[in-house]
Amino acid sequence: MNQMVLEAATLADAESLARLHAASFTETWSIATFTRLLASPGGFGLMARVPGRAAPEGGILCQVAADQAEIFFFAVSGRGRRRGTGRRLLDGALAAAAGRGATHMLLEVAVNNAAALALYRRAGFVEVGRRAGYYQDVAGRPLAALVMRREIDPQALRMRSR
Ligand SMILES: CC(C)(COP(=O)(O)OP(=O)(O)OC[C@H]1O[C@@H](n2cnc3c(N)ncnc32)[C@H](O)[C@@H]1OP(=O)(O)O)[C@@H](O)C(=O)NCCC(=O)NCCS
Q1: Which domain holds residue 99?
Q2: What is the pLDDT of residues 25-80, one digit of tens each?
Q3: At CA 22, angle to CA 68 and CA 43, rounded to 5?
């Protein structure tokens, strides 16, 4: 955990992001999908790395449009979970979004994703909507998504990082 660093994701990370996605979700997102998201207007990502280790510990991919930031992808590798990496990636993404002019962040999370829901709630996100059948569970049955939102106060983020 102490050695872990956050770095801006580049197009060269598209393959690692696709691997992280495949290890965490049943739906497949190709390298091309991550390349497109990273290259999209307002798109940005962060990678969590342990120096000297080839595979990243985790990554987060977002987009800022006007004053709104949205998380498209967020995962920590199975072996690296529950060590604070996810929270650091999320806090880094909030700060980066604030730096790009976002005043709030939105995300969708499956109703049965207890780990992510706990992390988001602890980080100050609140439920603002529900999308029935947005995902599928492992058996292919429809699964609802919760839409969550958090205001971003750039000053508070600056103070916390001091
Ligand atoms: C969600 C995810 C990114 C969390 O990453 P992580 O590095 O394990 O999270 P952290 O260690 O920073 O956890 C921060 C807090 O979140 C909560 N949390 C994280 N994992 C949890 C779990 N399995 N059960 C309950 N609470 C959990 C806890 O409050 C935790 O703080 P604590 O360890 O001091 O109790 C990770 O579980 C993951 O990659 N899951 C698969 C992909 C995914 O679901 N992504 C989100 C899609 S919306």
Answers
A1: 5-160
A2: 988 999 999 999 999 999 999 999 999 999 999 999 999 999 999 999 999 999 99
A3: 25
Give, using CA atoms, the residue closest to atom 16 of ligand 1: 119
Number of domains in the chain: 1
CATH of the domain at 127: 3.40.630.30
Cα 127 to Cα 72, 96, 119, 130, 146: the distances in Å are: 17, 22, 13, 8, 6
Chain-centre distance of CA 98, in angstroms? Answer: 15
Residues of the chain with pLDDT > 90, as a percent, come to 86
CB atoms within 10 A of CB 47: 22
Distance 54 CA to ligand 1 centre (A): 22
Pocket test for ligand 1, best of 19, 29, 50, 76 (most atoms within 8 A of CB): 76
Ligand 1 midpoint to CA 116 (Å): 5
For the CA of 89, the nearest atom of ligand 1: 12
User: Which pLDDT belongs to residue 145?
Assistant: 97
Would you state the pLDDT for residue 2? 61
CB atoms under 10 Å from CB of 24, counted, come to 15
For residue 115, report the distance from its CA to the centre of ligand 1, in Å. Answer: 4
pLDDT mean over 77-98: 96
